[in-house]
Design goal:
Radius of gyration of chain A: 21 Å
Number of helices of chain A: 10
Number of domains of chain A: 2
Helix content of chain A: 40-55%
Radius of gyration of chain B: 22 Å
Strand order of the largest sheet of chain A: 2-1-3-4
Number of domains of chain B: 1
Number of strands of chain B: 17
Number of strands of chain A: 8
Largest sheet of chain B: 16 strands, antiparallel, barrel
Oligomer: heterodimer
Largest sheet of chain A: 4 strands, parallel
Distance between the termini of chain A: 61 Å
Strand order of the largest sheet of chain B: 1-3-4-5-6-7-8-9-10-11-12-13-14-15-16-17
CATH architecture of chain B: Beta Barrel
CATH class of chain B: Mainly Beta
CATH superfamily of the largest domain in chain A: Nitrogenase molybdenum iron protein domain
Order of helices and strands of chain A: HEHEHEHEHHEHEHEHEH
CATH class of the largest domain in chain A: Alpha Beta
CATH architecture of the largest domain in chain A: 3-Layer(aba) Sandwich
Order of helices and strands of chain B: HEEEEEEHEEHEEEEEEHEEE
């Protein structure tokens, strides 16, 4: 009897508190930030990702469903560095939501809290779709994820001060597991050091920076422009002189050009998950790096 | 000449501005974007253009022959402070040898009213319909749908105030109202002390799975019109008499858009199906200003039209599209001859047009397009060919739905 009473009390308390706890609606532009938010915010937040691993985050339209979602968000978390420049500003304006405008606590750009690579010396459109603030794909370096996690955890506390202790405890817990995982990944990725890899787009700069991998070339002749036969034959010449071990692309990039170059140079192609959901096994940020390193190692065998 | 110097002034201002932004840090400068639009047009029929059953105005025309420029647009926009966003767009175009500078948009919009409410004031494209609030350079065809040409003189733009509210429900539901001056076509005369036109609109939308997204809109426009001159209808043997309408006018419309892309990745392939229908009721008087003695007739007009178009990007960069347009009208009045002179006799015709287009976008900033139309919008059937480039210099455009 006592047990039953306790059970019902617990259920009642859960029913009472859970809708209250899940009070912070967070809109993230990419699924990697949803995963990080789930780590840091747990049950106090409702996270939603505007895109999936199968969508190119440069090329999203301000769809009605996204406007409806962002209108009810208390926090917007995006990569920044102009990755979402075609659709986030218009979403923000259409949302008529005063909490999430740039400069407000409800607006968080991950790239703005870490050091960025690939900052162009000159910004000229003839160089392709270059980002003035540097390469925005910062989530592919676990060291930078750690820095972003710290800033994001603090931001959650700013927005929801009542949960400050909860966020701090979750951040500490995440940090411990993340540091542990990073050590493992580094061991697993030892063979990848100094490897030469051809990329489709320069999405991988931060991963390669962390693992000491060298970019042997890009399938895109200029950032954002599709591969051309002329460019592929030039790339073939470069690779004949100085071979690469692997060609990589994301789930949202068409594998055609990668496969063509693979035929020309006899180099294996690997589709890397890029973000959460990029393969079925990748359900969170931990899986993302584990699977990415596994797949790269697998291609070397 | 004066207009020319204004154009030069605007351009040199923009040049100075962009030089300044390159030298200093660009952060606090507005986004500047310049759109260049060049065309080659060909058609066989050289008679005056008309759409039987409709009094044309605004910028309604069939387009020019040979090599020519479309509208060159210069646009500056920026957050003004944490409260307001502002945008200014000027179009520079040549009409019969004169270079004309026109203020297309000049408005401010609130950012932080909150609760889903946005207020906008100034000159802006009305939010009625689907295509109306988009710049014509982002349209999928070189020219406007016939119903936009017929009812709005290509596009409804006016000076006024807009209030919109994004209803706080799970799905997308936006409603809005606009109070406008009503001095520009298709209104006229700025009735009611310069508050002559109103609109009401509602938009719904959402996703179906990962690959589909849609939007449905309803809109209403009404105006008290005092002397709307129909500019482009020439009278036989000279344009001395200008058909002019005064009375009430109301337009109802419904628009629908469906977009598909595999798993929502529109980069490789995507399909867009879009349709709009508008109908207009008018009740008033048509006068032929300039006739002596003044000729006039009562006029009750019912006009409607729709288009359906589909655009398919089959591989990256390449899109193909088809559009079908149709108009219909039933206009009554006491003096049928005067109605006829005003262009309101539909001559037993239902104007229609079929259009095919193919375009290539090398990057997000450039597009080259070939368009072919079989135009049966007036008594002489015509074949139209357009070759066009549209490029954008400067700020990255917005990916609107």
């Amino acid at each position: 009897m006592k047990n039953i009473t306790r059970f019902f009390t617990t259920v009642f308390l859960l029913l009472l508190t859970s809708p209250l706890m899940a009070s912070i609606n967070v809109f993230s532009c990419e699924p990697e930030w949803t995963s990080l938010l789930d780590e840091l915010g747990g049950e106090r937040i409702n996270s939603y990702s505007a895109t999936t691993a199968y969508q190119d985050p440069h090329h999203i339209e301000a769809r009605p469903s996204l406007i409806a979602k962002i209108r009810r968000a208390s926090l917007v978390v995006c990569s920044g560095a102009e990755l979402e420049t075609g659709w986030l500003p218009i979403l923000l304006r259409q949302s008529a939501n005063s909490n999430i405008m740039p400069g407000k606590p409800g607006y968080f750009e991950a790239a703005s809290v870490v050091e960025r690579l690939d900052i162009p010396i000159s910004s000229d459109r003839s160089l392709g779709d270059v980002h003035e603030s540097g390469n925005p794909h910062v989530h592919l370096d676990p060291r930078r994820i750690q820095i972003i996690a710290q800033a994001l955890s603090k931001r959650l506390s700013d927005i929801d001060p009542q949960g400050a202790d909860y966020y701090k405890q979750r951040f500490n817990d995440f940090t411990q597991r993340w540091q542990q995982a990073m050590k493992q990944w580094q061991v697993q990725a030892q063979k990848l050091k100094d490897l030469r890899i051809v990329v489709h787009h320069r999405d991988w700069v931060y991963l390669f920076d962390w693992l000491g991998i060298e970019i042997a070339g890009a399938l895109e002749p200029k950032p954002g422009l599709p591969a051309t036969p002329g460019h592929l034959s030039m790339l073939t010449k470069t690779l004949t002189a100085k071979p690469a071990k692997i060609i990589v692309h994301t789930p949202y990039q068409n594998p055609r050009a990668a496969k063509r170059l693979s035929q020309l140079t006899n180099t294996p192609v690997v589709e890397l998950p890029y973000t959460i959901g990029g393969t079925d096994q990748v359900k969170d940020l931990f899986d993302l790096f584990t699977v990415t390193i596994e797949k790269l190692n697998g291609a070397l065998k | 000449m004066k207009k020319n110097s204004i154009a030069l002034g605007v351009l040199s201002f923009a040049c100075l501005y962009s030089t300044a932004s390159a030298a200093n840090q660009a952060r606090f400068n507005p986004d500047i974007s310049l759109t260049l639009d060049g065309r080659y047009g060909s058609y066989s029929n050289v008679s005056d253009y008309e759409l039987p059953g409709f009094m044309l105005g605004g910028e309604a025309s069939r387009g020019e022959q040979g090599f020519h420029l479309g509208h060159t647009e210069l646009s500056l926009s920026s957050n003004i402070d944490d409260m307001f966003f502002g945008k200014f767009t000027t179009a520079i175009a040549e009409h019969e040898g004169d270079t004309e500078v026109e203020v297309e948009e000049a408005y401010i919009e609130t950012l932080t009213l909150g609760n889903g409410i946005t207020a906008k004031a100034g000159r802006f494209y009305s939010d009625i319909g689907y295509l109306n609030n988009q710049h014509n350079h982002s349209w999928d065809f070189t020219d406007e749908p016939l119903i936009y040409r017929a009812l709005f003189g290509n596009q409804l733009v006016d000076d006024g105030l807009q209030l919109s509210w994004l209803v706080p429900i799970e799905a997308y539901f936006k409603v809005g109202i606009e109070a406008m001056r009503g001095a520009r076509f298709p209104a006229g005369g700025a009735a009611n002390d310069g508050k002559g036109a109103y609109t009401v609109f509602a938009k719904f939308g959402g996703d179906v799975g990962l690959s589909h997204a849609w939007q449905l809109g309803f809109s209403h426009w009404r105006a008290d019109i005092e002397g709307r001159a129909s500019g482009t209808h020439a009278h036989d043997g000279g344009a001395a008499e200008v058909p002019t309408y005064s009375g009430e006018s109301s337009v109802n419309g419904v628009d629908f858009v469906w977009k598909w892309s595999p798993k929502g990745n529109n980069r490789e392939q995507n399909l867009k199906i879009q349709a709009e229908y508008f109908e207009r009721d008018e009740d008033g008087v048509v006068e032929l200003i300039g006739s002596n003695p003044l000729e006039s007739t009562t006029y009750q007009g019912q006009q409607s039209g729709w288009y359906l178009q589909t655009v398919y990007q089959f591989i990256p960069r390449w899109r193909v599209g088809y559009r079908y347009d149709q108009l219909d009208s039933n206009n009554q009045g006491s003096e049928s001859e005067i109605l006829s002179e005003a262009g309101l006799d539909n001559e037993g015709l239902k104007p229609e047009r079929s259009t095919l287009m193919l375009d290539y976008s090398h990057s997000e900033y450039s597009r080259v397009r070939l368009q072919l139309s079989k135009d049966d919008s007036y008594e002489d059937s015509d074949n139209l060919v357009f070759l066009q480039y549209i490029v954008t210099l400067g700020a990255h455009g917005a990916h609107r739905f």
